[in-house]
Amino acid sequence: MSDRHEASLTVVRAEGNIVCDMDGEKVMFSVATGKYYSLGSVGGRIWELIGAPIRVGRLVDELTEEFSVERPECERQVRKFLRSLKRESLIEVHSS
Amino acid sequence: MQMSAKKEWQAPELETLNVT
Hints:
- The structure holds 2 protein chains of 2 kinds.
- Chain A is of the alpha+beta class.
- Chain A has helices spanning 3-8, 40-49, 56-66, 71-87; strands spanning 10-13, 17-22, 25-30, 36-39, 54-55, 67-68, 91-94.
- Chain A has a domain at 3-15 and 41-94.
- By secondary structure, chain B is an all-beta fold.
- Chains A and B meet through strand 4, helix 2, strand 6 and helix 4 of A and strand 1 and strand 2 of B.
């Protein structure tokens, strides 16, 4: 999948997850998989930002404005993180 | 206008946890 295509995809949280904050990091229970997950601090911020449908490119824009990170690195790591969320059915991905 | 400092970036990672 090309970077440009992936950046144009829209992501949003899947339903059925219970999330709480623990020491500044988000911990989540998925009713669907019966598993507990830790999202960490940056992952928790991403989780907040995908509460409503958002394009991956826009998500990276928000994060590079908020965090001290170069865009290419941010984009690469965010895409990897989103793929791991998708593998666990924690997010929905739609073509814009 | 003063720019607010950006927060430290850490690569986001999904970690699976095991469970009186």
